[in-house]
Recover the amino acids of this structure.
């Protein structure tokens, strides 16, 4: 008969293998969560290595892991060890279905807006265009024509460029050409590709008055659980307030805000970097 998880985990709360005070229920919960983090970082891991990583005895680790296996949060393979369980796939799917990107992003965008006083945007890819989902109008009495619901070009907007930073150069060229010949003031295809290479390396993209006269912006991608770009944010302002020095200074603020939203969506930078190696 399948035991209730709380009963299965119960003995852990009563045991302290070091001989000290028995762990509380919350301590047991945190140990179980730490265990899941270790398995997520390690892939399949055996009991001895798992116990060593957690700093617990094998018996305590085994009891924690057994409770998690019973609830399908972990899977166990003989002679191989523990890996993440199928229940996490279900929970991840449900979390994704229930997560509202503008709602999750809004508090972070508001903090950025309060700090900078410039116009802040959130957008996603929609076909070959950037679709604006949210806008917080700046307080500098500068009119920026963007509106929620707008679909803007990739080539000329900072937010659009940020959405495609992970794409291949072939895809960049395709997106550039879709917009037709550049304006006399706009970058050539080769110049734009060179810019995109630099933006991809830095993890931010600029709009240097390409989309709207005398308006500049700094943008950064928002990533999902697998590290893929799912959205982007931007800070836009009049060129008189957005000289080269200020745009360089804003890159960290915009990137940190985008990363904070990404973390809420399930992104883990360490795991993403490891997966790319």
């Amino acid at each position: 008969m399948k035991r209730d998880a709380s009963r299965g985990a119960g003995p852990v709360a009563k045991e302290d293998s070091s001989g000290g005070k028995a762990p509380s229920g919350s301590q047991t919960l945190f140990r179980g969560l730490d265990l899941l983090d270790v398995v997520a970082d390690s892939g399949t891991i055996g009991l001895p290595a798992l116990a060593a990583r957690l700093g617990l005895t094998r018996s305590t680790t085994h009891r924690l892991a057994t409770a998690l296996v019973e609830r399908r949060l972990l899977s166990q393979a003989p002679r191989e060890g523990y890996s993440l369980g199928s229940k996490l796939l279900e929970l991840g799917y449900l979390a994704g279905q229930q997560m509202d990107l503008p709602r999750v992003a809004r508090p972070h965008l508001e903090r950025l807006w309060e700090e900078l006083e410039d116009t802040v945007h959130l957008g996603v890819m929609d076909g070959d265009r950037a679709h604006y989902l949210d806008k917080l109008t700046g307080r500098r009495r500068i009119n920026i024509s963007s509106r929620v619901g707008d679909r803007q070009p990739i080539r000329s907007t900072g937010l659009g460029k940020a959405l495609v930073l992970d794409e291949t150069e072939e895809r960049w060229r395709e997106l550039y050409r879709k917009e037709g010949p550049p304006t006399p003031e706009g970058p050539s295809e080769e110049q734009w590709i060179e810019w995109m290479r630099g933006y991809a390396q830095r993890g931010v993209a600029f709009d240097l008055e390409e989309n709207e006269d005398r308006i500049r912006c700094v943008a950064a991608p928002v990533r999902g659980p697998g590290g893929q770009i799912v959205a982007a944010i931007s800070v836009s302002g009049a060129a008189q307030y957005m000289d080269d020095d200020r745009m360089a200074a804003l890159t960290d603020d915009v990137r940190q805000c985008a990363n904070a939203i990404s973390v809420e969506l399930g992104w883990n930078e360490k795991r993403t970097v490891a997966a790319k190696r």
